[in-house]
């Protein structure tokens, strides 16, 4: 009897957590702390796989263009720039591709130009005539591409550090998630509909396993793209700027302008140099042309190969004397370190992909976006059932839930609003492209404010239905504002515009389905149910031992 009393008074010693339990906590909190940033990075990165196509969709006044010879395009564009700024020390031209039918260029303004002019000028050109195009000012798909690693309204350096730290947390979440779910591959084939928390967990597991190698690759390679920012010490050991420039030239195509001789000279026709490059690499293989010190005896012309023809993005180019046309050097290979970095960078960007591979990139990346989103929602679903009063959650829970709604449903509204602004803003509006971007963030901020003012369930429903309406109505709006609406696109076999309009309707259906699921969902309050059952249960008689937990209840959450 004494032994029994003594043992009853002994404090219970908690068992140490297992490795899987520790990894579960790591997975939960690393995913939650940066989950909202990761969701935005994943979604905008997913859209960026159709960056060129989206930019074309956001310029509907540009009709389908006939393919022009690369040498003709390069020569005509350069002639236009030199006629405007004959003393420009550097001109970099990007030639049309199968995905982007336009030519573009940026160039340094000549020394002694108007002080109000920026250091660099840029424009888009008609490939047929080489003249500047007067088209609507828009960032197009470039905005989403830049946002997914630079963020916005801050220094790009800060944005890249935040994106990099989020990617590091993502890697930890991936590894800890694999360790936590010991049956992760078995669970991939398990999905229980309408089971609340279990359904969210099954969806999260399935989406994670579906693209697990891709998720790891895309996160790791994303860090590799900015490795010199996160680990700059090797570059800092190089003694001078020339050596650092040589290292940079191994990884990206850009040649310093050099020093002018001061002796005027006539630039060789660059069309001949582009033609030489195509004879060496094949037709439509030239991606860009850089001209340094045009009309100077030290002129140089570099003709670079397209990145779309290979996985690695390490530069391959031919360097010519700009006066004689003599081939100075041919860079067609790189060292092991640069090649490794180039392959990983190329896998991240996916520029080598044909249309089928690009759609595969898009769908798996979209699954990664959904993986992050389901993980965020799972955090609130799991804890909501334990709240004493779900209508009055504690501050931390309410903050996470509101951020989830604004980050997931609100971002869908903001992205679609960006496309609406592209159609509705006046074409002659000053700083039009910037106001498209400002409008994106204004709409996103409004969704966050709306989420904070409305009950969580109503906020989910209203934003999802709003996204559905905006997505479904945009192709209809095109009928009134453009000539390249769905009916005309199908008749003229303009598959780019037709596929975009149809895709918008597909995503409208997806958002409507999610809204319907929210409408039908009935939250269960386990804490309240347990309290009610305890009050209703008769009290046990004194000295009557309580019944032990039945096997089917052991280990379940209250």
Automatic annotation (TrEMBL):
**Could you list the residue ranges forming a coiled coil in this record?**
none
Keywords from UniProt, A to Z, are: Membrane, Transmembrane, Transmembrane helix
Please list where the region (Disordered) is annotated: 523-558
Give me the segments passing through the membrane. Answer: 28-50, 161-185, 206-231, 359-381, 402-421, 433-453, 460-480, 495-514
Give a yes or no for keyword Transmembrane helix in this entry. Answer: yes
Name the InterPro entries on file. Answer: PepSY-ass_TM
Q: Give residue spans, biased composition: Low complexity.
A: 528-537
Q: Which domain of life is it from?
A: Bacteria
- Listed Pfam families: PepSY_TM
Record-given protein name: Iron uptake protein
Q: Which organism is it from?
A: Alcaligenes pakistanensis
């Amino acid at each position: 009897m004494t032994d029994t009393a003594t043992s009853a008074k002994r404090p219970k010693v908690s068992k140490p957590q297992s490795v899987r339990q520790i990894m579960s906590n790591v997975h939960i909190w690393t995913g939650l702390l940066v989950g909202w940033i990761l969701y935005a990075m994943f979604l905008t990165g997913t859209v960026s796989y159709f960056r060129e196509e989206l930019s074309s969709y956001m310029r509907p006044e540009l009709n389908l263009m006939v393919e022009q010879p690369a040498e003709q395009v390069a020569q005509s564009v350069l002639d236009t720039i030199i006629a405007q700024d004959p003393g420009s020390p550097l001109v970099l031209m990007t030639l049309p591709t199968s995905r982007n039918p336009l030519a573009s260029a940026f160039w340094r303004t000549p020394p002694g130009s108007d002080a109000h002019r920026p250091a660099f000028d840029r424009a888009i050109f008609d490939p047929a005539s080489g003249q500047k195009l007067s088209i609507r000012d828009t960032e197009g798909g470039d905005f989403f591409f830049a946002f997914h690693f630079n963020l916005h309204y801050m220094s790009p350096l800060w944005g890249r550090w935040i994106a990099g730290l989020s990617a590091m947390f993502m890697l930890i979440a991936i590894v800890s998630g694999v360790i936590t779910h010991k049956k992760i591959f078995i669970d991939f084939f398990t999905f229980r509909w309408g089971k609340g928390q279990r359904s969210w967990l099954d969806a999260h597991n399935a989406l994670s396993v579906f693209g697990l190698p891709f998720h790891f690759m895309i996160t790791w390679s994303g860090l590799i793209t900015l490795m010199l920012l996160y680990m700059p010490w090797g570059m800092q050991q190089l003694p001078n700027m020339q050596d650092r420039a040589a290292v940079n030239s191994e990884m990206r195509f850009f040649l310093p302008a050099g020093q002018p001789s001061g002796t005027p000279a006539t630039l060789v026709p660059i069309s001949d140099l582009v033609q030489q490059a195509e004879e060496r690499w094949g037709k439509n293989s030239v991606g860009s042309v850089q001209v340094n010190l045009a009309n100077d005896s030290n002129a140089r012309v570099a003709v670079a190969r397209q990145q779309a023809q290979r996985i690695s993005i390490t530069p391959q180019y031919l360097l010519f004397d700009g006066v004689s046309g003599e081939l100075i050097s041919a860079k067609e290979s790189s060292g092991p370190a640069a090649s490794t970095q180039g392959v990983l960078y190329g896998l991240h960007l996916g520029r080598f992909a044909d249309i089928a591979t690009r759609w595969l990139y898009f769908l798996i990346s979209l699954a990664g976006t959904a993986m992050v989103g389901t993980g965020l929602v799972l955090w609130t679903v799991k804890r909501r059932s334990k709240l004493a009063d779900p209508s009055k959650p504690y501050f931390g829970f309410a903050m996470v839930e509101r951020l989830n709604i604004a980050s997931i449903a609100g971002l869908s509204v903001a992205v679609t609003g960006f496309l609406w602004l592209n159609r509705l803003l006046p074409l002659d509006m000053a700083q039009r492209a910037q106001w498209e971007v400002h409008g994106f963030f204004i709409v996103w901020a409004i969704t966050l404010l709306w989420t904070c003012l409305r009950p969580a369930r109503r906020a989910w429903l209203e934003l999802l239905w709003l996204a559905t309406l905006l997505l479904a109505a945009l192709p209809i709006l095109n009928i009134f504002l453009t000539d390249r609406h769905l009916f005309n696109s199908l008749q003229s076999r303009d598959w780019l515009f037709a596929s975009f309009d149809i895709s918008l309707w597909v995503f409208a259906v997806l958002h409507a389905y999610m809204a319907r699921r929210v409408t039908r969902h009935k939250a269960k309050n386990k804490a309240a149910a347990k309290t009610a059952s305890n009050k209703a249960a008769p009290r046990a008689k004194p000295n009557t031992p309580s019944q032990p937990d039945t096997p089917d209840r052991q280990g379940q959450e209250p």
